[in-house]
Specification:
The complex is a heterodimer of chains A (375) and B (328). Chain A is α+β, with helices and mostly antiparallel strands and 375 residues long. Helix content of chain A is 59%, strand content 11%. Chain A has two domains: 249 residues, MetI-like fold (Orthogonal Bundle); 84 residues, no CATH class. In chain A, the strands form three sheets. In chain A, strands 1-2-5-8 form a four-stranded antiparallel beta sheet, with no helix packed on it. In chain B, strand 1 and strand 2 form a beta hairpin. Chain B is globular. At the A-B interface, helix 7, helix 10, helix 12 and helix 13 of A face helix 1, helix 6, helix 7, helix 11 and helix 12 of B.
Amino acid sequence: MTDLVAGSIDAKRVAVASQWQLMWWAFRRHHLAMLGLVVVVILYVIAAVPGFFAINDPSRQNARAAFHPPQQVHWIDTAEDGSWRFSPYLHPYRLVRNPQTLAAEYQEDRTRKVGLTLFGRGYTYSVLGLFETDIHLFASSDPRQPLYLLGADRLGRCVWSRIMQGAQISLSVGLVGVILSLSIGVVLGGVSGYYGGKADFVIQRVIEFILSLPTIPIWLALAAALPQDWPAVTQYFMITLILSLTGWAQLARVVRGRFLSLRTEEFVTAARLDGASEARIIFRHMLPSFMSHIIASITLAIPAMILAETSLSFLGLGLQPPTISWGVLLREAQNIRSIATAPWLFAPGVAVVVAVMALNFLGDGLRDAADPYNK
Amino acid sequence: MLRFLVIRLVWMIPSLFAVSFLAFVLIQLPPGDYVTTYIATLAASNEVVDQNTAADLRNRFGLDQPLLIQYAKWISGILIAGDFGLSFEWQQPVSELIWERMALTLVLTVSTLIATWAIALPIGVYSAVKKYSVGDYIFTFFSFLGLAIPSFLLALVLMYVAAVQLGQEVGGLFSQDYVNAPWSFGKVLDLISHLWIPVIILAVSGTASLIRVMRANMLDELNKPYVTTARAKGLSEFRLLVKYPLRVALNPFISTIAWLLPNLVSGSIIVAIVLSLPTAGPMLLQSLMSQDMYLAGAFVLLICALTLVGALVSDILLALADPRIRLE
């Protein structure tokens, strides 16, 4: 009996729920997508304030820490009398000469401890360009003893902090690039799908043509034509522009398909007969009904952009150091000698894989949730 | 069928011209023309080019004329004489440098395509037939992972594992003895023994998406009445699968060549650079870095033409397999 009542209330809620509410309910059932959402939110928080999550200044070089190995965090601190408390610490490393090979090697100094303080103070950074602070999520309790959670690169720069900083560029390239390609895609796809006829034919051929081309050689050639001495911001926007030049075709196709299928719907005809202007028909009546689909396609387009930026920067034709992005960081792992001595230089690659997978899961879940016929 | 073929072939002409124009614009993009760059390179090695040679070169490529005439000269040189211009970095005609590399690129791409199919087909069918089984989840997980790993990263990790754990050099397509040797049966065998590493690396990302496609296609077909009918007739499960739903599900599989190929070629360029394979990739990157634009343009043109031809082949295969398409 109670079940029946609950069921009918549920049915009532479903009947009056908005499209977005229905989507959210459907989305919540998709566990992998929820996980993806959580990871994506965390990643974009990091991208917004990378300084807070970094430990050391990402551009600071330290000749005494070249290829410093990652340090292991110990969570429980035991005292000599056997008592213990929760207080994360690490053992610092020191450089010693190997008596046989005479090479400098890092050795863990088990007699000393450096505490890992939460919300401790470190280098000064600016938060979104609004104000400056020196509070970090983790900080070393001893300012003279830098911590290297993921080790250091060839120049002794902290890999962990550089990954955090790189998230800003790598993740925003995806967003900015997708917004650019969406603007082109919506205009061309919209014209193509809404008006049909000759415009549709021409735009369709152009889209097919672009989709049949391999993107990497074209990106490489375009990126090679950019002057290397441009300021970092200009370079960044040129690279995203280059990525969107081929990226819009996929989105335009989605938009066109939606327009085509909605064009003949009764509510659109009704609006037209009512004398609504074309802009009103498109933005008030048609756009809301395929907004959710577009958002899902955007989410699925972002990872492609991230991978593209990473590949270009890795090859040396994308963003240039000292700009920090995941692709730029992976250039450090380019030759076999570096990665043989310092396998932790692969860590930015792990960040790329995690970000791309999370966005893919999220996009997949959104796509399923946005489909009203999907049960 | 003939009508379809003719229309499709005629469509290739504007596409190829568009590609060639694109490649030409890319050549023109860097500041300064070919001859100024050429003179600058020679000046760097203390050689002086006299005015006459410079004027001759300018005349040969029509550099003092408007863009369209330059394009006409460039493209007619290619079409009539196979002349792609000069590479100033190598001091050789471009056409002498590219063909072997393009051939190896083609070999790599085609082998990867075959490998991708050979891996994706059975796994996709398995995932669909044993939907939501442990195996299906494992394959689904790996295909998402495969989609997320950039191919160059996979190549780097493989190189690391091979070099550090196994103590082996990975890279190149030939052993030391065969690098400069003329083509022979031994060299081909040597090529095959080196080819599988880049093929596997490249196949991973393509396989991941193909498995998804194959699984979805099979799932659509498996619930159709004709499958039930076949089962009711007492066909064994395996014969039933191969004889009916698989054949229908294969259809979109063929059409995937068209979008798989551009991705493959793109991926092969990066992987070839990481593994320093003697294919188009490393030389293209090198030529772009030093702004050796005729060489770069030739590569861009040929690589894009390769994918266009791939799309053509896939369309023709699809028309052969599915009568509905050629009647449209």
